[in-house]
Amino acid sequence: MAHPWGELDKAECKGNLGLLYFNNGQFKEGQKSLEDALRVFRSIPGTEPLQAKSLTNLGIYYLQNNKLDEAWRATKEALTICERFPVGTEQIRNSCLEILRQLR
Q1: Which of 8, 14, 33, 76 is deepest in the core (most CB within 10 A)?
Q2: C-alpha neighbours within 13 Å on the C-beta side of residue 39
Q3: How confident is the model at residue 2 (pLDDT cuts 50, 70, 90)?
Q4: CB contact burial 53-70 (16+ within 10 A = b; e otherwise)
Q5: Residue 54: which pLDDT band, with cuts at 50, 70 and 90?
Q6: Cα(58)–Cα(38) distance, rounded to whole angstroms?
Q7: CATH architecture of 4-103
Q8: Domain coordinates in residue numbering, the chain
């Protein structure tokens, strides 16, 4: 079994790669990378803020691609995590609130 920290590094790389894909207009690849990162983060205890960050990035992707229900769900889940882990997630929370404002 791989050491969880090795998996954590891989997930962080996948999340960063997802953002790079998005910035280069490769949206499908970006979505897949972020979803892969989120899946790994969810399997590692103590990574809730990283899960919230991935969910927020997915929420932004969904919003930009008119997948409004998915954007809502991802953003609300990220906000729930931020409520449980308020220290260090302020920027994530603010991004979520901006997504929700745009969804209204």
Answers
A1: 33
A2: 7
A3: low
A4: bbbbbbbbbbbeeebeeb
A5: very high
A6: 9
A7: Alpha Horseshoe (1.25)
A8: 4-103
